């Protein structure tokens, strides 16, 4: 009686530990057995240190109307800024997608002071005339409200340098994370961004729109510069572990090469 | 009392083992318990052995303009090659989708010498009138920059053999992998491609654009030939294990049958 109970108990504890290992391995890939940190507070309190709110717009435009759209958008942006910049609206930048999943696309980023500032723009009736003209060229538009990760900071305008014949190329890497992994992502990239001090422009996570969507934007002089910066990061110890730990958190990732429009404050 | 304890323990053990099996089976294919190789260096250093960079373009065209598009594209290609052929731009091939998820689509592959070579094409204002004409017919265009797996090599031009009445058919198999699995994929297909020495054309993984996207292209004389080659592979020992191991790495897969355009260097 005694031995059979002991054996049964032993068997149970073995099964439990095997089950626990199986769960860890299956849910988080064989890479990592570290616990994923849970959120104890709102993401907006834990990951960001400013009130600024970003609107990221993706406009998919008819391929035959790309140039028309661009000149029209120039007027649209000046009009909006005339009206609202005194109240704190900032045009962070506008780009055309040069290489990406949807090539006939433009990306625009606008910065508001805080969430309350967004209320001024809810009433559509004010924006009508140029917006309608723009809409003739647009096939699809999507936008999201994002907050900036504290370790990425607020993007500053940058003028094109005189000796540059070609504009800077911007790489926007977008990640769709598994729900619940944003804090962990924040912690890992807080270390990770130190390996890439050279090229960082913008790092935001979405609050409204496609959720658990993170965008990192990097800028490079040209493709050769990009290749060098990225190779250098791999040479530094610790970068490959960082990649290893962030990879299981990602559902899907995408990258785009963006070229700034002429009116973009970020060149 | 003894009996009821014993029975309870037995019951518990059997439930736990069933649960354990259920979890393993549902969350993670029972196929594989081998750990996935993590990346220790950039994919571009580990998986490829040439500097060549491929641009894979997908143009979704208005169904009624397919023929016109083909004619304009002919002119567009000759123009591009006249301008940039001397600097090393290579037109690998152009195909029309014959069977696939999006049938009104063309696939074009261009090869650049290296990443720096891409910089010449960033300034889009240099784009010609012909590309504007092309854009009239296009609904959507997407592109990605890819690198070639070392064991697939660089695709060479191929002309149609004289006794062939029909062109070769090309099959493009596209895989969207789970993040972090590219090295493992490379290792497995390094062995796998030896089972299919006959038909391989191109094997690339994406670097910019949709990420963790792999394309393999195979060419066949006709559908019967395709069926034979694929059946033969299964007859060889080791092929089925290869498939078994690659399957858990895949998020999504798709295949297209492509027919080369008249001006494609690959026929």
Mean pLDDT of chain A, nearest integer? Answer: 82
Largest interface: A-B, 57 and 53 residues
CATH hierarchy class name of chain A: Alpha Beta
The CATH topology of chain B corresponds to Alpha-Beta Plaits
3D shape of chain A = elongated
Fraction of residues in helix of chain A: 25-40%
As a percent range, the share of strand residues of chain A is 25-35%
Write down the secondary-structure element order of chain A: HHEHEEHEEHEEHHE
Strand order of the largest sheet of chain B: 1-3-2-8-5-7-6-4
Protein name (chain A): NIPSNAP domain-containing protein
GO biological process, one term (chain A): mitophagy
Family (chain A): Belongs to the NipSnap family.
Organism (chain A): Rotaria socialis
Provide a descriptive summary of the structure in words.
Chain A: Belongs to the NipSnap family. Chain A: One of its GO terms (cellular component) is mitochondrion. Chain A: This is NIPSNAP domain-containing protein. The complex is a heterodimer of chains A (267) and B (267). By secondary structure, chain A is an alpha+beta fold. Chain A has one domain: Alpha-Beta Plaits. Helices cover 34% and strands 28% of the residues of chain A. In chain A, strand 2 and strand 3 form a beta hairpin. By secondary structure, chain B is an alpha+beta fold. Chain B has a single domain, classed as Alpha-Beta Plaits. Chain B has an eight-stranded antiparallel beta barrel with strand order 1-3-2-8-5-7-6-4. In chain B, a hairpin with a 2-residue loop joins strand 6 and strand 7. In chain B, helix 3 packs antiparallel against helix 5 and helix 6 packs antiparallel against helix 8. Chain B is elongated. Strand 8 of chain A pairs antiparallel with strand 6 of chain B, so a sheet runs across the interface.
